Amino acid sequence: MGACRARRLNPGTVWRGSGSATPDSKLWPDRITEQAIQVFAAVTLLVIGLSHLLQPKAWVTYYQALAAQGTSGAFLEGFLCLTFGGVIVGFHNVWHGPAVVLTLVGWAQVLKGMGRFVAPQFAVQIMARATLERAWFFRVGGVFALLLSGFFWWLRLGR
Fold it and tell me: Which pLDDT does position 75 carry in this prediction?
């Protein structure tokens, strides 16, 4: 924001600029990637959030099925969390301003995935707590996912 940064694209060539996206400015390759990951997270959380909100019983069934698989069910969820978080962490390394929220979400998903691989029995216990009586928890999670999605859309389009 206002600060000039230099980015070496190849030996001997230095591009300078603020990195802000204006119609007549060049977008840096890292900035384009950051914006693409913001859209990736916004779309993913929009779909997952709507699904949690509209289909909480299906999510209960899904988590019960994962818990019934034991360690392999925990590993399956671990792969999903690690993939989502790893993509964010790998391509959205932003540690300033509002965009840091997405980087933190990415790291949280990486840590969650790691927990599924390192302590799968604990993960199975958590997944087994999903019951039809507690299906409303998925709706709460859906609202949270939709709020995050809206925030990431704002990051990408509204600033």
Answer: 98
